[in-house]
Specification:
With 171 residues, this protein is of the alpha+beta class. The protein has a single domain, classed as Alpha-Beta Plaits, CATH 3.30.70. It is built from four helices and nine strands; from the N terminus they run E-H-E-E-E-E-H-E-E-H-H-E-E. A hairpin with an 8-residue loop joins strand 6 and strand 7 (130-136).
Amino acid sequence: MPRISLIEAPDDEAALEAAWRRDRRPLGARLLRSHSSVAEFRYAELAPPEAPPPELPGRVHSAVYEVLVDDLPSGAPFAFVLVNPFEVEPVDDEAFIADWTAVRDTVKGRPGYLGSHLHRTTDAAAAFRFVNVSPWAGVAEFTAAVSDPVFAAAARSIYHAAHPSLYVAVE
């Protein structure tokens, strides 16, 4: 059960990263920066569930999540990670999980796919009920998989608002 935090672009990225290294890294957290400079959430953080919400420069959306679907091998690298938060009403949980699983199955087994965790929040006040965290071997492999027309057709079945971005690990 990790704490997942999504952080909007701060005015000063260097200050955010310095504050994160000082305050959050010792907690065992992992910081990811969006591969796209125009992503809605410039940063994502994966932290242990006991970690408090981050107090960093920039607007933070943070909650504790449980893993619902897990096909990610232990020890998988997190150099390139798709983080995709979804806005889903509780009444839609079952249909969303089925649709998400069908989309995931279109990339499962593709070159570069390492696995994924579909998380559901345990916090009723969270902005995002579900978050998919899916490490990939590289940007090219991810781009090839999501550019496939089969993936695009399956992804259209998920009608809930999504906020995907591919992230790279911040050292």
